[in-house]
Amino acid sequence: MASTLHSFASAADLAGNLADKVADTLSAAIAARGTASIAVSGGSTPKVFFQALSTRDIAWDKVTITLVDERFVPADNPRSNHLLVDANLLQNKAKAAHFLPLYQDAASAEEAARLATEKTRAISSPFDIVILGMGGDGHTASFFPGGSNLAKALDASTPRGIITMEAEGAGEPRLTFTFSSLEDAALLVLHIEGEGKKDVLAKAEGSGDEAEMPIRAVLRRATSPVEIYWAP
């Protein structure tokens, strides 16, 4: 599937433009059927974008927000993506949105994934918006090269829902939506910043194995064009 690159002079410019795009898309979905859904990425990159989006005038009480992936840590852990969303997105006007966390208080990551799958079934499929990040190794969501469940995660026949992922350097076990849960979003965005990430993206857009650079699965197999938002 083709991708479209949107380049901006700064992270602030990117954040404002992406917030406008997301707000318009969510509002259109609400107008069409009364609700809207968005799955967002964690890490440090989306902070400014989250803050910008939180101020947009949307019928937030009709919006459900979740994460594309999460660490198996409680919401008050500094490494939690839930904490990042709570502090930066679920603020201002966006306080009225409904948030569905992936982390569940369970004895194991596998049990947490099962519980999260049950809870997130309340979100109608496909997502209206999925926003992904990308690591320097070409991972996205928690689809890590060499990850314990990578083949299952990327297999389009794997049912929608959340599975676990463990990988060297990933730290805690991860909870991640399967590729089949994300690929058919009405709007699929790849948000990346830095010259280094642009170089990684160029490599990913070339030939090569999806298992080596899992972002290739998104670029090649998403069912609608991938909107790439990049700033230096």
Characterization of the model:
By secondary structure, the chain is of the alpha/beta class. The chain has one domain (3-226): Rossmann fold (3-Layer(aba) Sandwich), CATH 3.40.50.1360. The chain has helices at 11-33, 47-53, 81-88, 109-120, 150-154, 179-182, 195-204, 215-221, and strands at 3-7, 36-40, 63-67, 69-71, 98-100, 129-132, 162-165, 174-177, 187-193, 226-231. It has a seven-stranded parallel β-sheet, with helices on both faces. Helix 1 (11-33) packs across helix 2 (47-53). InterPro entries: 6-phosphogluconolactonase_DevB (IPR005900), 6PGL (IPR039104), Glc/Gal-6P_isomerase (IPR006148), NagB/RpiA_transferase-like (IPR037171). Its EC number is 3.1.1.31. This is 6-phosphogluconolactonase. It comes from Rhizobium leguminosarum.
Summarize the structure.
By secondary structure, the chain is of the alpha/beta class. It is built from 8 helices and 10 strands. α2 links the parallel β2 and β3 (63-67).
Strand order of the largest sheet: 1-10-9-6-2-3-5
How many strands?
10
Low-confidence stretches: none
Give the N-to-C terminal Cα separation: 25 Å
Q: Regarding quaternary structure, how should these chains be classified?
A: single chain
What is the strand content?
15-25%
**Main β-sheet, in a few words?**
7 strands, parallel
CATH topology: Rossmann fold
Give the class from helix and strand content and strand pairing.
alpha/beta
CATH architecture descriptor:
3-Layer(aba) Sandwich
- Total number of helical segments? 8
Order of helices and strands: EHEHEEHEHEHEEHEHHE
For the record, what CATH class applies?
Alpha Beta
Large-scale geometry = globular
Rg over CA atoms: 16 Å
Tell me the helix content.
25-40%
Overall average residue pLDDT? 97
Count of distinct structural domains:
1
